[in-house]
Design brief:
The protein has two domains: 208 residues, 3-Layer(aba) Sandwich (Rossmann fold); 152 residues, Glycogen Phosphorylase B (Rossmann fold, 3-Layer(aba) Sandwich). The protein contains 16 helices and 15 strands. α1 crosses α16 and α9 crosses α14. Keywords: Transferase.
Length: 418
């Protein structure tokens, strides 16, 4: 039996995606330990896993570096990184870990595992990848053309237009002198530039089905896939279904955990409400975060439910369609339950995920800036009229349900632990 540590960027989508893998490791007789901030400890415990918590609070002594604008930000972030790295190293030692699975976005904090010669694999919660002219960045909405010099040129253009995200992260890393760069070199490992900045050149487990990725990425060396990794039994609370009519079709709308922070969110949610107010016979459930109270003031009919938070795994099995932001957690769960999607990406990896879904005929693209209910109605009508999308999504659902990718991913981990 080995003790495996999991450290992810602290956000619910990425963390939830790891629970199926953690449970598969436990079934094989391994012990799993999470490294999470205080705010996420209870959520991990509810799923039945052990964790070590770290504090995100940090006291920094005043100095000239804390008084100069610009320098102050870099100085505080550098000290915070050192604080997290020290806490990570203490966790690795205290829990006597035999190997670690680390989100590639936070590799810099976890570099101490390599200095301790522990098996280290990236646990990638999305379809990000190192730079290559064979495919576009996950930040891009481009669909890679087939082969040839023109295809490579188009991919270069796609990377160039989207490079601000990884370039900013890379320059930021260098500006504050991440200790992680040196630790990787000393361990004989290298870093590669790509989506979200530098990323470790180590074996990688992608939490998603291989079938969704673009073809050139599927055969990258040391890139493995874990399927949808959805746990229908995940403890996210319960939903009050009073007033729901099972004989009428249901639409579900959510922009994810941070969707209510986006500038166009209120206008978008309002347009969706007005569209479904006029759609006879349909029901709508919306998860709107902090905007819920404001949206409830619009004299909603009984067929429209607006909530601050919704247990998505309970709602999706009853949904006929899913309007969402193309967040990777929502995408995985929609594929698991076979729900066609209308996609309204607003940044990060969402344009690239939207491109994959449209490419594989699993959904249609929309514009998050939409504020006209008629546009929402037209896109919903277009999706409902696409029998090929419904059929493709049903086929993807069956493929995901029958997949052995998760177990094969555990095999990969065990080979590296051996």
């Amino acid at each position: 039996m080995s003790t495996v540590g999991i450290y992810m960027l602290p956000e619910y989508g990425g963390l939830n995606a790891t629970f199926a893998l953690a449970r598969a490791l436990v079934r094989r007789g391994h012990r799993v330990r999470y490294f999470v901030p205080e705010a996420f400890e209870a959520h991990v415990t509810r799923q039945g896993f052990e964790s070590t918590r770290y504090t995100e609070r940090l006291a920094v002594s005043p100095s000239w570096a804390t008084r100069v604008p610009g320098v102050r930000f870099l100085h505080l972030r550098a000290r915070y990184n050192e604080h997290l790295a020290a806490a990570f190293n203490a966790w690795v030692d205290a829990d006597a870990l035999d190997g670690v699975l680390v989100d590639p976005v936070v590799w810099n904090v976890a570099a101490g595992a390599l200095e301790r010669r522990l098996p280290y694999l990236s646990l990638n919660p999305t379809y990000s990848a190192p730079f290559s002219l064979d495919y576009p960045s996950v930040h891009s909405s481009a669909i890679p053309p087939r082969g040839g010099a023109s295809a490579r040129a188009r991919n270069l253009v796609a990377w160039t237009f989207q490079a601000r995200i990884p370039w900013h992260r890379s320059l930021y890393d260098r500006a504050i002198g991440w200790a992680g760069h040196g630790a990787f070199r000393r361990a004989g490992r290298r870093l590669r530039w790509g989506d979200f900045g530098y990323r470790p050149d180590v074996p990688e487990l992608v939490i998603g089905p291989r079938a969704l990725d673009f073809e050139p990425l599927r055969d990258l060396p040391h890139r493995h896939y874990l399927g949808t990794s959805v746990e229908p039994s995940r403890h996210d609370g319960t939903f009050d279904w009073s007033g729901y009519d099972a004989s009428r079709p249901l639409a579900y709308c959510s922009l994810g955990t941070f969707g209510d922070d986006q500038v166009p969110a209120l206008r978008f949610f309002t347009a969706v409400i007005e569209s479904f107010r006029q759609r006879e016979g349909w029901q709508l459930i919306m998860s709107c975060g902090a905007l819920a109270e404001q949206l409830r003031s619009k004299a909603l009919p009984p067929s429209i439910r607006v909530e601050a938070s919704v247990p998505q795994l309970e709602v999706l099995p009853r949904a006929r369609l899913f309007l969402n932001h193309a967040g990777i957690g929502s995408v995985r769960e929609a594929m698991y339950f076979g729900v066609p999607m209308l996609l309204f990406p607003f940044g990060a990896d969402q344009p690239g995920l939207t491109a994959r879904l449209v490419h594989h005929q699993l959904g249609l693209r929309g514009d998050i800036r939409t504020k006209d209910a008629r546009v929402i109605t037209e896109r919903v009508d277009a999706l409902l009229g696409r029998d090929d999308i419904t059929a493709a999504m049903e086929a993807m659902k069956q493929r995901c349900r029958n997949s052995r990718e998760l177990e094969e991913g555990v095999d990969v981990i065990e080979r590296h632990l051996a």
